[in-house]
Amino acid sequence: MYDERELSADVRERLAITRELATKFSERAAGYDETGAFPHENIRDLQAVGYVAWTVPREYGGLEISLSEMLMHQEQLARGDGSTALAIGWHVGMILNLRSTGAFPDELFAAVCETVVQDGALINSCASEPATGSPSRGGKPETTAVPVDGGYRIRGRKTFSTLSPALTWIVVTATVAGEDVVGQFLVRGEDVEIVETWNVLGMRATGSHDIVLHDVFVPSNHVVSIARPGAKTERNQDGGGWLLHIPACYLGVGLAARDFAMRYAATYQPNSLPHPIADVAHVEQKLGEMELKLLAARTLLYDLAARWDRSDPVDRPRLRAQFGAAKTLATNAANEVVDLAMRVVGGRSLSKSLPLERYYRDVRAGLHNPPMDDAVYRMLAKEGTAPYRQPNRS
């Protein structure tokens, strides 16, 4: 949790910008959800106010905002439209990750940042594939990179490529032909084919289509890393704090549902009651449950973000399991909050004329964003039992 009164004037001013954008996005959200079209208008609005450069380092012309502040904005944007917030979150989060880890060669990162600041360019990493599933599970890419003079030629197909219709830069993982190593390569968005496969239950407007690489040439200076499958790359060396943009987004959707239910309960008075339904005991309990779930999840989220911001970079990986816990707590809480909100509103909540059924579908997607619940529980269990385990005597 954060108290807006305690924020600096600059941060409050930027929050006013994202709050205004969220209001615009909320007016368009139903249309984009209905058609599944990518929200180009929303992205242009974010580019127009410079939001896409807020996490860029100051030395490259950005604002270099903190992780904590980035989460505030992501949560706020998601209160307007979850799809837009989740999509742009991968861009601003990835820039923050690259800033904190130095995973890109300096010249390459500087060149990317220049396009972000000057042109509103967008970047994301596309690693998932049909046969390997989530890259967090350690699958070896079937996409291949063949060494040629001056670089590599890459062929393959990626799934869940969020923000794909607007990407200028794409970090692609590929197995290097003839070697037991996996590379990360920076590809231009204009060099890939977008196959519009994204037609799903929730978060329908994220543009998470398939991308196909048809013998794409990548020069040697666009090679980010080469490592053995499963090895940790430099991008993994900050504990994954940037991935908190995911729970922030789903909490934003949960907050939107909370707001709707609170307003409805405080103003709806059926002719069978002498007061609004907010004063009915079982409704009051549901409203209280919603507040508690959001309070717990948001408190953990912002506490961890603040710890990441003030930590020495070498200590940040120790927070990885806790970041996973924040994601699991937040996404499950968001699902529970939206469910409670719909119970408060009743049968009307199912109507397409109200936003609750969209919130209900959108928060379901959070359960399938990394890290998955089972992986988080496993990490927490291993950390918890580590002090009690006997050393291996074999």
From TrEMBL:
Region (Disordered): 128-148
Keywords: Flavoprotein, Oxidoreductase
Entry's Gene Ontology molecular function annotations: acyl-CoA dehydrogenase activity; flavin adenine dinucleotide binding
Domain Acyl-CoA dehydrogenase/oxidase N-terminal: 20-96
Source organism, top-level taxon: Bacteria
Keyword Flavoprotein among UniProt keywords: yes
Pfam families, per database record: Acyl-CoA_dh_2, Acyl-CoA_dh_M, Acyl-CoA_dh_N
Domain Acyl-CoA dehydrogenase C-terminal span(s) in chain numbering: 248-366
Residues of the Acyl-CoA oxidase/dehydrogenase middle domain: 126-216
Flavoprotein found in the keyword field: yes
InterPro entries membership: Acyl-CoA_DH_C (IPR013107), Acyl-CoA_Oxase/DH_mid-dom (IPR006091), Acyl-CoA_Oxase/DH_mid-dom_sf (IPR046373), AcylCo_DH-like_C (IPR036250), AcylCoA_DH/ox_N (IPR013786), AcylCoA_DH/ox_N_sf (IPR037069), AcylCoA_DH/oxidase_NM_dom_sf (IPR009100)
PANTHER family, per the entry: ACYL-COA DEHYDROGENASE (PTHR43884), ACYL-COA DEHYDROGENASE YDBM-RELATED (PTHR43884:SF25)
Protein name: Alkylation response protein AidB-like acyl-CoA dehydrogenase
Lineage: Bacteria, Bacillati, Bacillota, Bacilli, Bacillales
